[in-house]
Design a protein that fits this description.
binds 2-acetamido-2-deoxy-beta-D-glucopyranose, two-stranded antiparallel ribbon, glycosyltransferase, seven-stranded parallel beta sheet, alpha/beta, 373 residues, 9 strands, sialyltransferase cstii, chain A
Length: 373
């Protein structure tokens, strides 16, 4: 009897030890995770948010995730950094950019810079792909660069990242003299956070495929027409010669504009093969992704027109640095859309962000990271 009791006690002891070691193993792993998260994010405020935790675990496994800088960690920890514009540094960078790219000339092809039948190539596609300049396309080109002699004291470049959601940055953005936007992003429903003003938006022709059914029905055409109407006076910057995959839909777009000539007051700009020069500049800053983001491209172009540039919506991660909550990839993505990292194959958004944050700390450019007051 005593023997049995002894044996039973031993078994219970073993089980207890096993369970204890299991618990300590799990908590050890958890500690590791949080130590790293502490290093990256700092705030205990953020650390215990469930959404953040799972999101962080994902980022931790994600090879593209790079630790952010110490300065940024501190800032996100609630030590707000008083940003101050350094005009000298800004003008120095402008000079550097200008030595690589003639932005006013490269902003758009003009009637004089191409001839009908000329074969264009694509910046990001094999050289074998060509696009013949048609009469119609040529008729849509501006006579001179739309930004020649345009100068604004304060510009905003608005990226499309989910961080804008709930930021209340709309009024601040609208105070800028000139607002750059990317990829025809909607503003109306989101104006509290992203503002109403649009003075330029990029328009990748593939948007017609994705959002306007290739303009195949009358309703698609009406929708597109009405959305263009809202941009009255703004510049539509159309990168038609970056990727050969947009060639077919570019013809649809060109036809549409020719048919509606006189009815729409958007100014069209059609950049040629400019990325070689733009890439060359950013390479001097050790940034050389397969493709630069549209946001940083707009930031580059803004140097030709602006005496100060503020950036919004450039946060590249799937969680809010202030609250730890999960974020969509774009501020206008449907609720419940998962953050995607598909861009990793071509873009290096975290590296771009890191570089822009460095420029922020140097007073060159203000990068908005938190909610606007
Ligand atoms: C502004 O930038 C210049 C050039 O980068 C630098 O030499 C100077 O120290 C900066 N001024 C301030 C106040 O930080
Ligand atoms: C860019 O500007 C340079 C200098 O004005 C010019 O030679 C070149 O043709 C332009 N390239 C494009 C694609 O517009
Ligand atoms: C920018 O766009 C707004 C409308 O969105 C317009 O009121 C304003 O005059 C434009 N500014 C410039 C400099 O074109």
């Amino acid at each position: 009897m005593v023997r049995i009791a002894k044996a039973l006690g031993l078994v219970i002891l073993c089980v207890a030890v096993f369970i204890l070691s299991l618990i300590s193993y799990v908590s050890l792993r958890k500690d590791n995770l949080f130590t790293s998260s502490k290093y990256i994010m700092g705030g205990p405020r953020i650390m215990f948010h469930a959404g953040f935790r799972s999101q962080f675990a994902m980022n931790f496994l994600d090879p593209s995730f790079i630790p952010l800088t110490n300065a940024l960690n501190e800032e996100l920890q609630g030590k707000p950094y008083k940003w101050k514009f350094n005009k000298t540094a800004f003008y120095q960078q402008r000079k550097d950019i200008f030595s690589y790219i003639d932005i006013p000339s490269n902003f758009s092809l003009t009637k004089n810079s191409v001839r009908v039948g000329q074969l264009m190539h694509f910046d990001y596609s094999s050289h074998k792909y060509v696009f013949s300049i048609s009469n119609n396309l040529k008729s849509l080109l501006p006579e001179t660069s739309p930004i020649l002699n345009k100068h604004y004291s304060m510009c905003a470049v608005v990226g499309n990242s989910g961080i804008l959601t709930g930021s209340h940055c709309g009024p601040e953005i609208d105070q800028a003299d000139f607002v750059f936007r990317c990829n025809f992003a909607p503003t109306e429903v989101y104006s509290k956070d992203v503002g109403k003003k649009t003075n330029l938006t990029t328009f990748n022709p593939s948007i017609l495929e994705r959002y306007y059914n290739n303009l195949l029905t009358i309703q698609d055409r009406n929708n597109f027409f009405l959305n263009l109407k809202k941009l009255e006076g703004a510049i539509l910057w159309i990168p038609a010669f970056f990727l050969h995959t947009s060639a077919t839909v570019t013809r649809t777009l060109v036809d549409f504009f020719v048919e509606h000539k006189g009815q729409l007051k958007v100014e069209l700009a059609w950049p040629g093969n400019i990325m070689h020069d733009v890439n060359k500049y950013w390479k001097t800053k050790n940034l050389s992704p397969k493709r630069l983001s549209t946001g940083i491209l707009m930031y580059t172009l803004a140097y030709a027109m602006c005496d100060e540039i503020h950036l919004y919506g450039f946060w590249p991660f799937g969680w809010d640095p202030n609250t730890g909550k999960e974020l969509p990839y774009h501020y206008y993505d449907k609720k419940g859309t998962k953050f995607t990292t598909k861009w990793q194959e071509t873009h290096q958004l975290p590296s771009e962000f890191k570089l822009l944050y460095k420029l922020h700390r140097e007073g060159v450019t203000k990068l908005s990271l938190t909610h606007c007051s």
